[in-house]
Amino acid sequence: MGKALAMLLAGVVGVVLVGWLAIKILAPLLFFLIVGAIVIGGGALLYAKAKRAVAPGTRNHNRIEAARETYRMRNR
Questions:
Q1: Residue 7 Cα distances to 2, 16, 57, angstroms
Q2: Cα separations (Å) of 48 from 18, 40, 62, 63, 64?
Q3: Whole-prediction pTM value?
Q4: Domain map of the chain by residue range?
């Protein structure tokens, strides 16, 4: 009975120790993962907004097309 209790206690201590070590190692990595996800999400949001702003039929798209045509006509 004493040996089983000692093995159980050693197992619990081992799990707690491994968990504590994992938190110490992974906590900074988790911070960088969260910051990286926020940066990537923000970049995707800005990309979508920019893409939508110059979609065909929008004022910006028409302005860019007119400027391109003017440049092409001037440099013939």
A1: 9, 14, 73
A2: 43, 12, 19, 19, 18
A3: 0.52
A4: 2-74
